[in-house]
Amino acid sequence: MEEKSAFETFELNLPPAILGFLKETSTWTYFLSILGFIGIGLMILGGLFFSLMMNMMPGGNPYAGLGVDMSYFGLIYVVIALFYFFPVLYLFNFSRKMKGALRSNNNDELTAAFSNLKSHYKFVGIFTIVIMSLYVLILVFAMIAGTL
Asked: Per the record's keyword annotation, is Transmembrane helix included, yes or no (predicted)?
């Protein structure tokens, strides 16, 4: 009979204080992810409402002479909501899987929970780098345009 290694037989064996911290963290991340989903829904509804209503209002497009349609501004909100969806989903999956791991003492669920948390922070970090890079580019182009 083949004997299992210590890693194969490892059970979720964390001190009670850490288990309490993880349980509280999963509760708060669940709450924040639900608020995030509600915010995404409101952003999508607001963006669609803005796109439709600005085109129906007489004189509602002050940029018509420039050839800019106001509905594009509402679609920007929808695109931002779609980008916001993924980190909120990762946070929701973290909280759900963490609660399951703590309930059933399951290492696979604990690993999946932390994988989702890693993905959440990775997405937020990369998104932050992209936005900050855009700010730097805008600043550089504004300084160049200011000297012309």
From this structure: yes
Report the C-alpha gap between 37 and 55 in whole angstroms.
28
| Residue burial 115-146, b: 16+ Cβ < 10 Å; e: rest | ebbebbeebeeeeeeeeeeeeeeeeeeeeeee
Q: 89: which residues sit within 8 A by CB, 6+ positions away? A: 33
**Residue 9 included in any domain:** no
Amino acid of residue 35? L
Using the predicted structure, report yes or no on whether residue 27 has a pLDDT greater than 70: yes
37 domain residue, yes or no: yes
What is the rounded average pLDDT of the residues 66-86?
A: 85
How far is 27 from 96, CA to CA, in rounded Å?
A: 9
CA distances from 108 to 27, 104, 122 (A): 20, 10, 21
pTM of the entire predicted model: 0.80
Residue numbers of the domain that contains 108: 16-147
Number of domains, the chain: 1
Residue 103 is assigned to a structural domain of this protein: yes
For 121-144, write each residue's pLDDT tens digit. 999 999 999 999 999 999 999 999
Q: Which residues contact 5 (CB under 8 A, 6 or more apart)?
A: none
99 by DSSP, 3-state: which? helix
